[in-house]
Amino acid sequence: MRWVFRLLGLVVLIIIAAIAAIFLLPSDRIAGVVEERFEAATGRALTIDGDVRPSLWPALGVNTGAVSIANADWAGDTPMVAADNLSVSVDIGALIGGEVRINGVTLEAPRIALATDADGRGNWEMTPPAATDTGGTTETSAEPAGGIPAFTLDEAVIADGQVTFQDAAGTQIALSGIDATFTLPDFAGPATLALTASANGAPVSVDASVPAFASFLDSGGAVTLSAGAGDSTVGFDGTAALAPLGVDGSLTADLSDMAGVFAALAMPAPELPEGLGQNTLTVTTALGFDGTTLTLGGTTATLDDNTVTGDIAVALDGPRPRITGTLNAGDFVIAGDEETSEDDVAQAEDTGPEGWSTEPIDVSALGTVDADLTVNATSIRTAQSQIGRTSLDIDIDNARMVIGIRELVAYDGAVDGQIVVNGRSGLSASADLNGSAIAISRLFSELLDYDRLVALGDMEIEVLGSGNSMDALMNSLNGQGSFSFGAGELLGLDLVGMLRNFDSDFVGEASRTIFDSITATFRIVDGVVINDNLTLLAPLLTATGEGNIGLGGQTLNYRLVPKLLGDGQDAISVPLLITGTWSAPKFRLDLESIVQGRIDEEVEALKDEVDDQIRDRVSQELGLTEDQPSAEEAIKDKVEDELKRGLRSLFD
Question: What is the mean pLDDT of residues 204-218?
Answer without folding.
Answer: 92
